[in-house]
Task: structure prediction
Amino acid sequence: MQGAGMSRQPAQTAIQAIGLRKAFGEKVVLGGIDLDVPRGTVFSLLGPNGAGKTTAVRILSTLIPADGGDVRIAGCDLVKDPDGVRRAISVTGQYSAVDGLLTGRENLILMADLHHLGKAEGRRAADELLARFDLVDAAGTMAATYSGGMRRRLDIAMTLIGAPRIIFLDEPTTGLDPRGRRTMWEIIRGLARNGVTIFLTTQYLEEADQLADKIAVLDGGRLVAEGTSDELKRLVSGGHVRLRFQDLAALDRAARTLGAATRDDDALALQVPSDGGVRSLRSLLARLEDASIEVGELSVHTPDLDDVFLALTGTAGTTGTTGTIKTAERDEVTSV
Amino acid sequence: MSTFSHAAADSATMLRRNLRHALRYPSLSVGMMMMPILIMLLFAGVFGNALGEGVGGPAEGDYIGYVAPGIILMAIASGCMTTSVSVSLDMTEGIVDRFRTMAIARVSLLTGHVAGSMIQTLISTAVVIGVAVALGFRTHGGVLDWLAAIGLLVLLTFALTWVAVALGLLAKNPEGASNSPLIIQFLPFLGSAIVPPESMPGGVRWFAEYQPFTPIIETVRGLLVTSPDGRDAAISLAWCAGLAIGGYAYSKFLFNRKAPR
Result:
């Protein structure tokens, strides 16, 4: 029903966390992170193994308590109203959460029953999801016999029963083959189109790049960067030109001529910082020609999220980060 | 719907799930039924003549009459093992985490297990009683005696199932869960199931007289074979109530505390 006027607009924030902290004994897994995920957007928490991604999902989905911090999900306080949170969310964890001894269809009907959908409506929802996730042929076989990709699809289908408004996906494509991964991406895009808020964790940059409206990089229990993928790419200084030579002698002479460059002796290659523009390329080649150095191969690299990721979370190569970015201290990196 | 009817509906959903599991994976259920049947065949059919002379009292010479009530209790104790294993299996599966993130009655997962296990255990107990009758078990009990005996057995099943749920939650893995209930399964031997405690050496005899299975076996035997003893019945009811309350409270504590993976 329509309310009177616009006075009570629903909160525009789906997930909001302030100062979220969690430690397991001495190990600090989340060192006070802030999250703000607007409704209807895809948010990706990106980080290497052991960065604390799963811990964050487990806290936000009411599975484990945080040590500190304020969290509101769908307007409900995580601590005071966990059932309110649970009514709004649905979770696909990193580990398969299907019942292996039930068939695919029975798994979906189990979820429908737990959402109190009613018999007819539950069966209708189950059959519709089986069709949508290409599981009709396997609907009557036990989930234990499913392939990894089928299990994942069933897992997501179970997550969608009850039309949740906020979905947590913890590394949804880990362990899938490239085709399965692309199928999963299509599923996630479809959900986003329907206005579902998605909180996605991944260790694949490409995945975050492809799917997320906003990316936060988690490392060592801290958010070391946050923004759109374009914003993050801008954080690392420029790209580079990679030159390959015929022999070590040519590489030596080029390195002497160009000065500021990174050598890779095994590949007979030289990486020269460059913005990739035509003018700078022309001047680079002119300098090499003046010194009569023969270049075997030339390629231009613009920065991608991999550069960002390495720059932000790697031990080496953090020089590319700007002053606004806190680089993580490696000794704080803990595993969950 | 009210909170209670939600909890009831969720428990019924979980019960359906557990019964399906039992049908899909029957080896556990069949195994739990075979153990007491084999023991009965062994003690009544093979050792029965010699043991029958020794039991004394009203049952002398009628060893199947003496041993059957004890074996019926073993069937119930044996059912515990499957409960512990299936609870422990469940806890290692990712689906429990899914349940925990849903707005469902939390206890329904456990009540579903308890109801499912009770149904299975009572069915297998009925089969064991049938085998006992086929081996020559005859009772002098009337309808009321039978009803009283069945009531006590159902109560014991309820109590032991909650204890088994706690043991299943306590176990680190399903293998561990299949070990701890062995103690419960073994207890009737050190009671009055096979031979009277009076025939046992000092310390064992003391234990046999005061452990929970002995008064329950005596009550069932009294109702069905010899004559009922009110004192045994009262002690039996107290044990069942205590085990049920303790098992339920400890299960609930463990389930809420259990650190998920």
